[in-house]
Queue: 4 jobs
Job 1
Amino acid sequence: MNKEQKQSVIENIMTRRSIRNFTGQSIIPDDLHTILAAGMSGPSCADVRDWSFIIVTNKEMLGKMADANGRYADPLRNAAMGILVCGDLQRAFKGAEDYWIIDCSIAAQNMILCAHSLGIGSVWLGTWPQMERVKEQAKLFKLPEHIIPHSVLAFGYPAEKEQRNVKDFDDSRIHMEQW
Amino acid sequence: MNKEQKQSVIENIMTRRSIRNFTGQSIIPDDLHTILAAGMSGPSCADVRDWSFIIVTNKEMLGKMADANGRYADPLRNAAMGILVCGDLQRAFKGAEDYWIIDCSIAAQNMILCAHSLGIGSVWLGTWPQMERVKEQAKLFKLPEHIIPHSVLAFGYPAEKEQRNVKDFDDSRIHMEQW
């Protein structure tokens, strides 16, 4: 990549912020496809790709997803789209199935970063490991037993002023060569 | 972002591939700083930022990290740098501490994507949830009890031909409006 291309990538990572207020504008199918392709492009344990994505645009269903995800999930109610990221235990790496949690996290972060580059804001609404949320989402979507809700992502065009500040660099978290 | 900038971000996400063979070239401090800043820019549960990073460039120590991480960790032995991503249970979200697993995954993926844009290859070597690896890394680095090894990332300049193929888009993982 040339210097400008690198800068675009790094700026996109650094300027991503949680967006909780969205305009009514919907997300075009091409952009949704790009976001999903980004989600599928991350590494996964032994390349098992142990995730599935439920895309919701129906307003009533978005409200139900918010209800199922407890406090702080209200951004879903005005989102253009919610994605329920799910792990798939039938595909998960045998012997260390819990890698599904990491694999779904990678997919979700890729989608969020891709959306940000497209001008689409998002907020990550935690589901797993809060098991009452996991259970409620599974019930809402009548999921098979091997499909486990991981996270809800709310997407839409930002109706709030973008924060362009960069998060603090915290030297205290860096340990050189040893703890 | 303009069209070209968007394309840079999306291309960077789509073309990241695990790199396991590295040249001897070391990573300059500026690039390391950028990679770490990217790691710190992701969302975390309630913004607790419950991670720490141990950066290792010493060859002997890289060998020991590889030994501690079991099979498939050999890329560390010729890497310019290894990063042990750790969760910090003292900072983790109270009441649902296991969000640290997701928060560390986000940080790691951000670092990998940032490195890729800088021409630096990487491979993600799973540690958690394989508890023998977690234990061995904790022992090697004499970690306090609240610091939990999550993943090892090996970084370096690629000594293998870059694969520019894009991962399959798998329609079977997409569920519209319902499961």
Note: Chain B touches chain A through 70 residues (CB under 8 Å).
Job 2
Amino acid sequence: MNFNTTGEHSADFKELRKQKIERIEKILTAYLPKEEGYQRVIMEAMAYSLMAGGKRLRPMLMQETYRLFGGEGGVVEPFMAALEMIHTYSLVHDDLPAMDDDELRRGRKTTHVVYGEDMGILAGDALLNYAFETAASAFEEYPEESLRIGKAIGILGKKAGIYGMLGGQVVDVKETGHSVEKEVLDFIYALKTGALLESAMMIGAVLAGAKEEEIRIVEKAAGKIGLAFQVQDDILDVTSTAEVLGKPIHSDEKNEKTTYVTLLGIREAEKVVEKESVEAVELIRGLSGKNPYLEWLLGELIHRKK
Amino acid sequence: MNFNTTGEHSADFKELRKQKIERIEKILTAYLPKEEGYQRVIMEAMAYSLMAGGKRLRPMLMQETYRLFGGEGGVVEPFMAALEMIHTYSLVHDDLPAMDDDELRRGRKTTHVVYGEDMGILAGDALLNYAFETAASAFEEYPEESLRIGKAIGILGKKAGIYGMLGGQVVDVKETGHSVEKEVLDFIYALKTGALLESAMMIGAVLAGAKEEEIRIVEKAAGKIGLAFQVQDDILDVTSTAEVLGKPIHSDEKNEKTTYVTLLGIREAEKVVEKESVEAVELIRGLSGKNPYLEWLLGELIHRKK
């Protein structure tokens, strides 16, 4: 399987990725609310958490899938911002004292440490709510695409909620400190990590006018990417160093977490990453459109060292 | 001003109100997710908080405004459920230890006391997210009404978020323990209490196909109802008894809260209630449609003793 990670275009793609991240951050900034009014502290807390860096993976996958299906308009942009707001709200609430109680994220103080626990809760709520406001703003800007926008909002909601990311988070929290069976672990991974990636790629496809069958293929591919991504995370937690990873290693062992590595061992876990990622890229390549950058990106994500 | 509260129809309207509340609770139950799957605890927590009783004021105002403008279909029902979910999530998060730290609400243990603080946070998140999923489900059920549904989702988001209820909550939390000027108090009341009532009546109007100008009138009336309702709350806190009110009295004084009563005194506060409610009903009566039950209900709300 050639993911092009060492091919002649790899350096170009890496540069392209940087530019794309910059462009995405401009979109996020544009969709953030103005910091004004008696409630401006909450707008500040929203910006603080949303503009904290990161791979911007979800909006990027959405945009690239949109392009894969020939999408060329701006209607995808509010949805890119909305999805990143949802991802960010989940991090803000995860970090709260009653949840993971984390004081640092990517080397910066977490939102509740800077703004207080009450504002941490409200900032997460605000981002989740504003995500739907941002997505719904597309109705006004692109009224002729109302049907696609309505469908995309439905996907955004479902994949973020109790049948998606939030449902996975609930089970993850509930099972903390217990060892879990593979079936439950797969459930957690599919929902907590997979669902927002599915949402990203499905919304890109829907907004570009993909057929129902193509949307199902994209969903399946994204699910495989999510699983490969998460298992790679499990592997890096035992094989990488804190320097390379930018966060503490052996955290799963410390937290007594069941992972693919604890269940299957490193070698079998690596096979899962390879199998799922190969199948995901094959699914994408089987579609009528082409997006070489997207294929390269998927390889990068899965074979990443951090 | 005759609100019909003591008129010949008052007993009938009271009975009708009971029936309507029962019907609304059936709708809420129907739109709640099935309690199943590894994440079922969160569905239980959602049902626990949503089905805890109450006046069901917001869905009722939405439905009655929908009828006022001649609405007869079922498209309003997912929105009634969605709005009550949003109202409920705000109560669940308000009660958290990092916020008001309340252990009882309407005589029952609050959600985080029963399910734990982590699940309390997640149950609120789940209700907020599911509200938008529920509203978006209308696209599938009523595709021919997509434009109105899109507009209604926009209103739902805006009136719940940082420019609505959540924005009011932020300022209320921020100013707790400080005395505030009337301008700030009006801001808090308009957003924290008024915005969801505006949302209720505006969405009812939008879904029934009301004109832009009529929607603006309804918004204005709902804002006045919200202010009258909240000032009446301020008055009852000093004039009622804990028995009648079903919650502790003199809580504003204890919490050093600025209210209309502390700023203007009881007599002036009563004048505000009268003025705002009269103007609200006049605005509603000036519309082309008629809904005598709605007019009666508005009087009941404002002249209530609890």
Note: The longest strand of chain A covers residues 104-105.
Job 3
Amino acid sequence: MDKRPIGMFDSGVGGMTVLKEIKNKLPNENIVYLGDTKRFPYGSKSKETIIELTKKGIEFLLKKNVKIIIIACGTATSQALDVVRKIYNIPIIGIIEPTVEYIYNKQNIKRIGVIATNGTIRSNGWEKSIKEKINNIFVTNKACPLLAPMAEEGWTNNEIAKLAISKYLEDINNVDALILGCTHYPLFEGVIKQVLGDKTEIINTGKTIAEFTKKLLKDKNIENKELNNDYKIYLTDIECNFVNIAKELIKEDLIINKAEI
Amino acid sequence: MDKRPIGMFDSGVGGMTVLKEIKNKLPNENIVYLGDTKRFPYGSKSKETIIELTKKGIEFLLKKNVKIIIIACGTATSQALDVVRKIYNIPIIGIIEPTVEYIYNKQNIKRIGVIATNGTIRSNGWEKSIKEKINNIFVTNKACPLLAPMAEEGWTNNEIAKLAISKYLEDINNVDALILGCTHYPLFEGVIKQVLGDKTEIINTGKTIAEFTKKLLKDKNIENKELNNDYKIYLTDIECNFVNIAKELIKEDLIINKAEI
């Protein structure tokens, strides 16, 4: 039993799609969420910069006395997770491992597509992690650099979103499942389903992370067993569209705090 | 008479639209162009970061023995120009001043629209500079954060570009002229013309900068009077779509060099 909050870090509000799933799956847990909206997007930044910013984010969360940290950002996971795990003495979960675990446990996925930011696709982190754990799996990668900026504009379900997604998914045919390798992408889930049809399973990393986190808290015996949920949202820049997106996703009147990091 | 090159700095390849106009207007001049593609886009970065990166860019160009510097980036102009002008002892031209000069000399522009990145619009640099010099002018601003990333994707003349531009220009009606306040935007000039029709003059800052630079070189007597043009392009990251866009714009077989800054 451990009432300390779960810490979550993202480059913006994309990680809110993960927060939503954690909230559903682990309703007792307190959460401190930090979105580095001032420096968004991470997708086009160098590895060194992403490591530096992720360290700053983690240090902010450590001061909030969190018990575990979820890096709810595809780019920060693929570029910085290995490094920060060696520095900080706290369990840190990224978005790749829980999803690979999920695919591993499903026997029917043999051909998989991954969509993500430029930085994530270039790092090849998804393909490497999938193939390390699973034999005989075919992976197709596609960078979709416009999707995260479109999500921040709130353009997730208009004609522009539909056309952009159709264009990006042109080359991804005949896969059993598609991983949404950036935490913004579940915002486009409706449109992606329309484009791909029913045959393809869409893997929302928020759901796999929530499942993985639940198991980790249980294994370490650090669950919060009393209903005591408190969500604290910090953003490094609060004058942004993100606030509306976050509120829409979470469907609660969130109080947004400014974080100076 | 001065054979030293003109230095140009941009966050990416947007400044190539300026290079194209300089090349047309000042065919004798040698040019060294630096595009900070590794750190693109600047539009969403903090003022401090943009100043730091612009200083690095200028120092790179100074080592190339340039005679003047053009900051061919809307965001760097609005956030960093004032600061760097105080630091470096070389004429530095941004994208705002030449355009304000152009509007000042035209009597018929009374209502003007400005489209640019988030950072540029938030800084209010365009509106302030226009109103400082010109009385009784009405200015409407609109941030278009997706356009520069779309330009890098090469999506400048497809259905997605048309829809995005129509959406962004919805609120800009009845202006005499529209300033393309980001140097990427001339890549969309065809589509913007289709959306706005003939009544609105589209001001390509590349053209106003070329005119302004020509006058400045003449006034200071540092023109290159012999035909001796040499274009050196440096990018901080050369694995990018930008190379194709640059080549298409300039219609020459450009040699792209990697700059380590």
Note: The first strand of chain B starts at residue 6 and ends at 10.
Job 4
Amino acid sequence: MAEERTLELPEGYRFAAGYAGIRKQQSDDLALMVSDRPASAAGVFTRNCVRAAPVDFSAESLRRSSGKAQVIVANAGNANCATPNMAAVAEATAAAAANLASAPEEHVLLASTGVIGESFGESVIPGELPKLWQALDRTQFEACAQAIMTTDTVPKVRSCRIDTDQGPVRLAGMAKGAGMIMPDMATMLSFVFTDADLEPSLLQSLLVSAVDQSFNCITVDSDTSTNDTVFLLANGASGIRIDDESQGVFQDALNQLTRDLAIDIARDGEGSGKLARITVTGPSELNGLKTIAMAIANSPLVKTALAGADPNWGRILGAAGKAGVPFNPQLADIYVNGVQVCKAGMRADFNEAAVQRSMEADDIQIELCLSGGGGSSAVVWTCDFTESYIRINADYRT
Amino acid sequence: MAEERTLELPEGYRFAAGYAGIRKQQSDDLALMVSDRPASAAGVFTRNCVRAAPVDFSAESLRRSSGKAQVIVANAGNANCATPNMAAVAEATAAAAANLASAPEEHVLLASTGVIGESFGESVIPGELPKLWQALDRTQFEACAQAIMTTDTVPKVRSCRIDTDQGPVRLAGMAKGAGMIMPDMATMLSFVFTDADLEPSLLQSLLVSAVDQSFNCITVDSDTSTNDTVFLLANGASGIRIDDESQGVFQDALNQLTRDLAIDIARDGEGSGKLARITVTGPSELNGLKTIAMAIANSPLVKTALAGADPNWGRILGAAGKAGVPFNPQLADIYVNGVQVCKAGMRADFNEAAVQRSMEADDIQIELCLSGGGGSSAVVWTCDFTESYIRINADYRT
């Protein structure tokens, strides 16, 4: 994985991280992210019908502000979910941030990750925010990426420069890991910032498209959190407006950036050592192909075969077949790391030892072709399923 | 688990098991089950669109015979799936069995479990069948249950006597484990026999109802095999016909027997030490409640919490919320082994150490009530998720 060495940070944003004492181990658990001016804002939230207070609060903020925001406050260590005072914690946090920014409360967005069902005081975050406000600096982007980590083993940041006809704009994003975590559940959070100028409604539709081909195409353990949130802010500080002409290149860059962040998350799945890219090609409509790809990606049998470097095409074909999307198995071809292991629904003639060796690598490519060639493709990413996952999630006690 | 000591075997059936050399370790891998006369027959098959040859063959037999059968041939060690000669193997097996029984070929039903994608010779089973035919005996029922085992640690047999107004009839069933297995996939197989007299169409509808509340309510790892099969034969040897009056008591007994077999399978899930019964009660329609119960039962986070004896109600609530069936989390109550751990969507006041201790037992009861009391209920069974599951499925190589 080639990490960018230097981040291309967008203009007009400042960041700060600190420790508010929400998580037990003493490392940063609070991130403050501020635009110098009100920005267009878009958000995508969990589809779980059990939702944390910050999710409800932020969705309501975006509605009331018609897609504007200036401040994001995110914390790790507590999901602020399923507790009696969760709404009060969200309200107090937003009020304190709005006060510091001299902004209306609906220009504040919130996100939380960590244990659910455990209360913490309403003044905990407000008490720490003034110190962070003083420390705001455009260089503290990665410190924020670090502060929102839970079971992640590495912070996840990505950035790029987009050259439009009118000049360059910048895009930078951070994410934290999927894989629901000890002692309760974790969350997928991602915050993306650009200094391009975009209308809120366009921004929202670009974000929905991007999420659909990135964060919605990864799985660690098929569990969906109460707190999953993606925000995209566009503050226009570059002075460059994304118009009909540059919209395509902006969407492409946003797709690439969110996809890179999503893959970073899958690669860092709990207890995981390997990333697998699963491509399903066929004549069906794309939704059906993605359903099949996700059935393969979530199959415990496929994921344990990845861990064991076992080119077990029977498990792949079986997982595809149970997805509920009909296909003719006699047209199914399967390739593992480019080697055909199944031809027309039956074992292909391949060197098993060689494919096993290729599966010892960190990156595994699985391709299922349902049509004998051609058609559209769905791509999803997953990780292997190891004894470490069980240890992380079973052996720890609340 | 109170196993019956003596089986109530139905009249007019004989059984035999033997070793055909299909599996490597030398233990019985072939079961022959014969009714003395043509019996009414019903079958339920996997919904996986990748289907093994015996599944296709048996479905076609039942169609051609209008629900009659006299012989079941089942083998372990090879699924007879996704190979060039799978249909030929099925045809040759059925022809040999039909010849021995002097029955039409469509009165033969087939089932297989084991590795997929590996061929075996068309004469392997036919070569062994004459020996089994000679050995047929009504006492060999449990030997057949043993012969169809794969990763099962114990054979699963259940029986009962049903006292109708006209006299007693008997019901006996065997099953083998779910949990897709090394080196490829396994299968859920179950064969149930009665000496009651029933019309094929009634028998089929009784079996579908029974399967829906038994085998379709268990999960080990959410993977569905290419070979899953349940057969029910009714040969009428008791001379007692199930009529409108006795239909209810027969259905109840069949439900109980298949449910007991299904629970035996869940309890014997790969690497599992614990059985969990998950009950979801609410005002929604039953299908929605079962979807929620299955989301909980298949959640790796819930299953690892079971292994760790962790009363982690947040994971249960989160898994329920992601099922796609809307409910109001503020009305959700959760009980673990009878102790309320979540009240109105928030932590209840409970003794955590005591609940943890109660979760060290082999049997765990989880109840989620979505309505504040009342409504209908869905019940499913699952097992815990341990490092042994990973070892069984990852560390073994094809």
Note: Residues 247-267 of chain A form the longest helix (21 residues).
